[in-house]
């Protein structure tokens, strides 16, 4: 009998049985979901991505949605946060304007995002990841890199099997599915996780990296978006294989530091380690309006509500930010960002709002906006946040009042106390489709 440890024979992703021969179905349970690859048991760097995460959570919580197309997003003026795979088959894509999504899939069920619920489920998945290895680098609420090197003795099986067991466990215990990408570097692990969604398990080995990448579009490389892809297109560069045939010096001469990135990633060279200490760069909240708005009377209450959301998250996380960033998107989708650095880090809604309002005052010139957002960057811990203000004597009183409001909201909910900016404004101050980063 052939060895059951032969990676070319692999294992069953459903019952985890290692196969004694190459076959189309598991020799134990008959499942066609087999994982096999020459480097299967030698690789330990993975990217895990939850499948259509927001929609999957909603379907889990409402079984009646199981066979229906589901779109998570705002009203007619909003955009698609995510869509289930049934909706995607009908042409719906993330970030698509909602009206286009409903044109493509008019029978879809549209659900407003519940970010608190998604964050809670995301934390459950992350805790399960951290039980596999301490080297977990979250990328977003629903995806992360893992390095399982050196964990085979701990788990009694190679990383590939550990990851397959993890995927099965998430599906059973949390009720959603994940896709796994396994490779020797972060770039290709991320690429692999996208190959066979949903419930995917894909492997890209080092020996095949060059040939695998050769016929892929340049947009597969991190950092090559539509704008840069257009630059490469003008230079006649469409595939990664073309980049593989170009010299590093030529690429750097044409595209600067991005050229160096193109040179290495086109060859599957990526030496970045899984960074456990990677910190968030900013905390923000934004919303898209159902109708374009231009006046301060309409925009200021929304800005206040969003500032309170950002402040709440900062306080819960024990962090503060020194730079306040205002984001506006015009009715013709042009983006405006304005920022101001404060003398000291803040986590107070009062300071975030006051700074954002001052930045906004210069932009309320009659321009119609479809989106507004507020956030803070230059994050640090909150130990030095909001020291006593010797100039503004009322600042300390406002900070104490905000603390009292936080206590009341913690007990009775956000709607228990409102400021004069938002009180009585209803949906204008608390519009649907609040999106958190």
Automatic annotation (TrEMBL):
Taxonomically, the superkingdom here is Bacteria
- Coiled coil residues, start to end: none
Q: Which ranges carry the UmuC domain? A: 45-225
**Entry annotation: catalytic residues:** 143
Q: Would I find DNA damage among this entry's keywords?
A: yes
- Sequence positions that bind Mg(2+): 49, 142
Q: Which reaction does it catalyse?
A: DNA(n) + a 2'-deoxyribonucleoside 5'-triphosphate = DNA(n+1) + diphosphate
Q: How is the cofactor bound, in the record's words?
A: Binds 2 magnesium ions per subunit.
A Pfam family matched by this chain, by name?
Answer: IMS
InterPro entries assigned: DNA/RNA_pol_sf (IPR043502), DNA_pol_Y-fam_lit_finger_sf (IPR036775), DNA_pol_Y-fam_little_finger (IPR017961), DNA_polymerase-Y (IPR050116), DNApol_IV (IPR022880), Rev_trsase/Diguanyl_cyclase (IPR043128), UmuC (IPR001126)
Under the heading PANTHER family, the entry gives:
DNA POLYMERASE KAPPA (PTHR11076:SF33), DNA REPAIR POLYMERASE UMUC / TRANSFERASE FAMILY MEMBER (PTHR11076)
Q: What is the documented function of this protein?
A: Poorly processive, error-prone DNA polymerase involved in untargeted mutagenesis. Copies undamaged DNA at stalled replication forks, which arise in vivo from mismatched or misaligned primer ends. These misaligned primers can be extended by PolIV. Exhibits no 3'-5' exonuclease (proofreading) activity. May be involved in translesional synthesis, in conjunction with the beta clamp from PolIII.
Kindly provide the name given to this protein in its UniProt entry: DNA polymerase IV
Natural source organism: Mesorhizobium australicum
Whichever gene encodes this chain, its name is dinB
């Amino acid at each position: 009998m052939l060895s059951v440890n032969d990676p070319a024979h692999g294992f069953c992703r459903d019952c985890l049985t290692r196969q004694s021969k190459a076959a189309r179905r598991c020799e134990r349970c008959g499942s066609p979901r087999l994982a096999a690859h020459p480097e299967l048991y030698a690789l330990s760097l993975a990217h895990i991505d939850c499948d259509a995460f927001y929609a999957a959570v909603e379907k889990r919580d409402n079984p009646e949605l199981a066979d229906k197309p589901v779109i998570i997003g705002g009203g007619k003026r909003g955009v698609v946060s995510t869509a289930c795979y049934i909706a995607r088959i009908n042409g719906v894509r993330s970030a698509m304007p909602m009206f286009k999504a409903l044109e493509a899939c008019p029978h879809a069920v549209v659900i407003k995002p519940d970010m608190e619920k998604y964050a809670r489920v995301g934390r459950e998945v992350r805790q399960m990841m951290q039980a596999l290895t301490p080297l977990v680098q979250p990328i977003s609420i629903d995806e992360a890199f893992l390095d399982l090197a050196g964990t085979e003795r701990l788990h009694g099986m190679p990383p590939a099997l550990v990851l397959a067991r993890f995927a099965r466990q998430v599906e059973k215990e949390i009720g959603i599915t994940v896709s796994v990408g396994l490779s020797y570097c972060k770039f290709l692990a991320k690429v692999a996780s996208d190959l066979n969604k949903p419930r995917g398990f894909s492997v890209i080995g080092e020996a095949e990296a060059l040939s695998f990448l050769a016929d892929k579009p340049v947009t597969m490389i991190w950092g090559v978006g539509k704008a840069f892809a257009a630059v490469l297109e003008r230079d006649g560069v469409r595939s990664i294989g073309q980049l593989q045939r170009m010299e590093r010096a030529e690429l750097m001469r044409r595209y600067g530091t991005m050229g160096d990135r193109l040179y290495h990633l086109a060859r599957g060279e990526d030496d970045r380690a899984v960074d456990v200490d990677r910190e968030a760069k900013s905390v923000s909240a934004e919303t898209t309006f159902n109708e374009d708005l231009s006046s301060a009377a309409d925009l200021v209450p929304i800005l206040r509500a969003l500032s309170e959301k950002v402040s709440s998250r900062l306080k819960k996380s024990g962090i503060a930010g020194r730079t306040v960033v205002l984001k506006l998107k015009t009715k013709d989708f042009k983006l405006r960002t304005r920022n101001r650095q404060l003398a000291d880090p803040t986590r107070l809604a009062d300071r975030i709002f006051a700074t954002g309002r001052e930045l906004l005052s210069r932009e309320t010139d009659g321009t119609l906006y479809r989106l507004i957002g507020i956030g803070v960057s230059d994050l640090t811990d909150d130990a030095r946040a909001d020291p006593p203000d010797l100039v503004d004597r009322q600042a300390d009183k406002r900070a104490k009042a905000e603390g009292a409001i936080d206590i009341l909201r913690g007990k009775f909910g956000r709607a228990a106390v409102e400021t004069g900016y938002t009180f009585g404004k209803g949906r204008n101050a608390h519009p649907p489709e609040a999106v958190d980063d």
